[in-house]
Predict the structure.
Amino acid sequence: SAACLLLATSTVRTDDLAPGFSPESTSVDLDKNHRRLRLLASARRNYLDSDVEAALAVARQALELDRELFGPADIRVAWRLRKLANYHLELEQPEEALRLARESAELIRATHDANTWQVEDAARFIEVTEAIAALPRSKRQRFLHAARQMEAADERHNLQLALAAAQYRAGVLLELFGDRHMSTVSELLTIEDRLIQMHDTDASRGQLHRLERLIPQISITPNPEYGSLFLTRAQLAENEGDDAAAERYYQQAIDILTASNLPFEENLPTAHNNYAVLLDNAGRFSDAVPHYKVAGETWARELDDTCWIYYRIQGNRVRVEQQSAFEAVDAHDWDQ
């Protein structure tokens, strides 16, 4: 569905998907949140259709709902301001982009300790925004268009095109910041993820080992990119048939992404879901159910119900819970 808001760096396993709509808290106005999700879906569709002005207008409406639902200082508001900043960059409005980037950083600094990955990341976003704004116009536009091209290619499952877009962006960031910078590392992880999906893993293993050592050296933990790295490693291990290593990496990804305390970190439900699929396929149905449930509750809050993932996951959770019930019947000692 074009309205699907899941923009995870790593692939969602769809061979056995599943969550149910079980909102975490009744304190959120569900009707208003539904409107917010529909607006975000519309903004994304406009963005992918290259109508950035329309995307910006709709995203501004979503920002107001973010403030009403979660409070004006919530980190969701700060991240929405970043999205608006990127739209303004594409519209050749660098001053407004930098203003929004700084407003976002001020919100983060007001609500987080100085020595946290969130504050560090906010400063880095300003740094990257300034650097991209200073690029020659043609190079800046190509860099920004590559992000949209990659997102659209992922939607069409065109991994080759998505890979090429990520490689271009990584090259620009390497020129600007070198390889010991988290913005560069993020794009390098995106490249490795696409290569693994394409089963081109010869170089991925060594690169992932290098990034695993590098990220704790250049970023405050628990940066969610570190969790994303272990999610990518889990996918590589599954491709190689090493389910024990995959299980270990999924657990590490879940631990780090949970500790990062980002309420909308899309790779967290992805990690729970893909780990559940691994357990499910191994016949460990009761172990899989809690992970399906966490994935489902998170996605239910952040996905418009027109998204295909919403329904695929719901059906799979029901199937797994039914299987667990059948196992309980089979295991019962009827002669007691």
Summary: The chain has a mean pLDDT of 87. The two ends are 52 Å apart (CA to CA). Residues 308-331 form the longest helix (24 residues).
